[in-house]
Amino acid sequence: MSKQTYLTGITTTGTPHLGNYVGAVRPAIEASRIESNESYYFLADYHALIKSTDAELVRQSRLEIAATWLASGLDPDKVTFYRQSDIPEIPELTWMLTCMAAKGLLNRAHAYKALVQENVESGSADPDKGITMGLFSYPILMAADILMFKATKVPVGKDQIQHLEMTRDIAQRFNHHYGELLVIPEVVVEERTAVLSGLDGRKMSKSYNNTIPLFETEKKLRKSIMKIKTNSLEPGEPKDPDDSVVFEIYRAFCTDEEAAAMREDYAAGISWGDSKQRLFEKVNETLAEPREKYLQLMEKPSAIDDILEEGARKARIESRALMDQLRAATGISAKA
Ligand code: TRP
Q1: Which residues line ligand 1 (CB under 6 A)?
Q2: Looking at ligand 1, which residue's alpha carbon is closest to its atom 14?
């Protein structure tokens, strides 16, 4: 198989939790260790501005997310790790792509349509009430992220498939007018991607307020785990591991042998208190070392920024070269 270029972005809103770790951070870091591929990982901080006007939250969450990836084992020498806003060519490409994107295409974006639908249902006179141009053209910014680095494979969640289709559509239109300059990417949907349940049994998500933060203190981690909802079976009564969030999270952190042993303990009637204690010990053992690294990084944000700047320096060698070509092709600059 020819060399592939993987690229994915992480929107910088919110503090990373166990669900993010199991579903996104850990698999991406494992993939980045495969030598034959090239990977680009970036913090989508311009995308964060669409979702939040809280400057402190955006600033803090950029550091937390960068520190999380680095502390979890991302090697910035092996991948290109940067932040979107350090690449001025991205907004420049966004504009060129905006001029290629049919408005009708963006009208059909699920995220936009859902908001319009909400407005209509609530009886608002304006179907576009509260919708910014940032939100409307979000898929074009995402297309620029992807096309800038000639990504061939883009791993994303199911909710992002449509954005990849739009990226391909916009790139094809650009190539039709200006020559084959943009690489058409393919989406990689991680069907198997683990989705962890949260404290209340629904999917772990910031919007449900049911998360277990990834790098909180040992004491707080234990407290969060003790809050996981269970049924009222008494100690000594057999319990069904497949119907338990406590087991589900344990499973995401343990080996196959440990899981088999725990299944037996459930059948033998382990108490919920003990099973939570065992879960806490397992998660804590896995996270203790990364947590140390995380805290060290967070104490020295300038070190995080140095790493991101070095990533941007590498990335900009590519982005400048591509933009030179695109400026010439579109007539913005003299012929190449
Ligand atoms: N929109 C993506 C999300 O919310 C984040 C993102 C921004 C992204 N730019 C990207 C993902 C480019 C993949 C490629 O999850």
Answers
A1: 7-9, 11, 44, 47, 142, 145-146, 154, 156, 160
A2: 8
Overall CATH class of domain 5-101+137-196+301-330: alpha beta
| E-assigned strand segments in the chain | 5-11, 38-44, 80-83, 153-156, 186-189
Pick the residue whose CA is nearest to atom 11 on ligand 1: 9
Q: Tell me, yes or no, if the two domains 5-101+137-196+301-330 and 215-295 fold the same way.
A: no
215-295 is a CATH 1.10.510.10 domain = no
In this predicted model, what pLDDT tens digit does every residue of 1-40 receive, in sequence order? 678 999 999 888 888 999 889 888 888 888 888 888 899 9
State in Å: Cα 44 to ligand 1 middle.
7
Testing ligand 1's pocket by substitution, the residue of 6, 11, 84, 147 carrying the most ligand atoms inside 8 A of its CB is 11
What is the residue-averaged pLDDT of the chain? Answer: 94
Nearest Cα neighbor of 89 from 316, 334, 328 is: 316
Closest to 93 (Cα-Cα) out of 335, 334, 336, 321: 321
**What is the tens place of the pLDDT at every residue in 141-194?**
999 999 999 999 998 888 889 999 999 999 999 999 999 999 999 998 876 556
**Cα(7) to centroid(ligand 1), Å:** 9
The model scores a pTM over 0.70: yes
In contact, 23 and 193? CB cutoff 8 Å: yes
Alpha carbon of 142 to ligand 1 centroid (Å) = 6
Amino acid at 27: P
Q: What is the dihedral of CA 32, 34, 40, 42, to 10 degrees?
A: 0
Alpha carbons 316 and 146: distance in angstroms, whole number:
14
How is the chain split into domains, by residue range? 5-101+137-196+301-330, 215-295
Taking only the tens place, the pLDDT of each residue in 199-243 is 999 989 888 999 999 999 999 999 999 999 999 999 999 999 999
Distance from residue 266's CA to the centre of ligand 1 (Å)? 40
